[in-house]
Amino acid sequence: MISKFFSAFKISLTTCLFVSLGFTPFEVAAERLKDLAGIQGVRQNQLIGYGLVVGLDGSGDQTTQTPFTVQSIINMMQQLGVSIPVGTSLQLKNVAAVMVTTSLPPFAQPGQTLDITVSSIGNAKSLRGGTLLMTPLKGADNQIYGMAQGNVLVGGVGASANGSKAQINHLSVGRISSGATVERAVASVLGHGNIIQLELNTSDFSTASRVVEAINKRFGADTAAAVDGRVIQVKAPASNDQRVSFLGALESIDVTPAQNAAKVILNARTGSIVMNQSVTLDTCAISHGNLSIVINTDNAVSQPNALAGGQTAGTANSNITIAKDAGQLMVLKAGASLSDVVKALNSIGATPQDLLAILQAMKASGALHADLEII
């Protein structure tokens, strides 16, 4: 049976799908340049700090197992002028040691506020209702760039689902909206002289070439030049005001990116599969346990009519047959693709492990023209 269907054919997959959803054909559309690339020097900087959350309702750290919480309280009290006798055993139930994290956006200035995330690092049961005490936020250079303080909000606490009470969020993590104030700005330099550099989010020589073409078409020849598949040099005005206006217009240019590399992503734990429109499938035969899959081409030749000049016409229809326990279960015809194979396998109860093994076998045999990524 296998020898009957090894005639070459290729099926183009023109859908991007989740297996559990429907399939919607689409074409690559133009995107704004700001969605495809960033400007070198314009970036966020991560900040981190260690602090204390107080005012908890008995749900704080167990001090016998988190000595750093007691040490932090003692140090804080000494800085506030309160002396605690040596050897005093503190039984703190309303205090939790936490890490505070946030990101400092580009061009942030002193006085601006930032949202922060507060996460317990001890064994506190909940941060609900607590207050974060003043916490310095440091960057990678160990310099202080912000100060955080405020009431911690733990979202979703006590929410009910389907009429039954349930706590559906992590109680050891909370947020404070506008909970940090920027104390120091990070110097940002937009290029050197009259040159700025664009960095594509994903390296792609075709997309880089199209970006250069679009910029030169908008601002004139020799305005942009590609350095490699990711970096593009652009000539910009030297004046700060003119440069900002220029960058605003630059980011709004529409560019049609190149088609992405063919990729199939499989989550082996949940069985979810995502594939893009570049995936193609060649003829193959697969046997996996009690499942068998045959993908072939049915070549049909029509007889010439009186006006055809003796020329015959041929058509090739793709057929995918999926059988279970040696009995034919379903046949997919005319344009069937990898998405149809996956959908059919799901309909007969194939497990994520079955899908993983089958896709790996198709990739190893060369029938699956795509990168297979397993997460």
UniProtKB/TrEMBL annotation:
Protein name: Flagellar P-ring protein
KW Cell inner membrane (keyword) present: no
Transmembrane portions of the chain: none
A Gene Ontology term for the protein's cellular component: bacterial-type flagellum basal body, distal rod, P ring
GO MF: structural molecule activity
Species whose genome carries this gene: Undibacterium parvum
Gene: flgI
Family: Belongs to the FlgI family.
Protein's job: Assembles around the rod to form the L-ring and probably protects the motor/basal body from shearing forces during rotation.
Localization (cell): Bacterial flagellum basal body
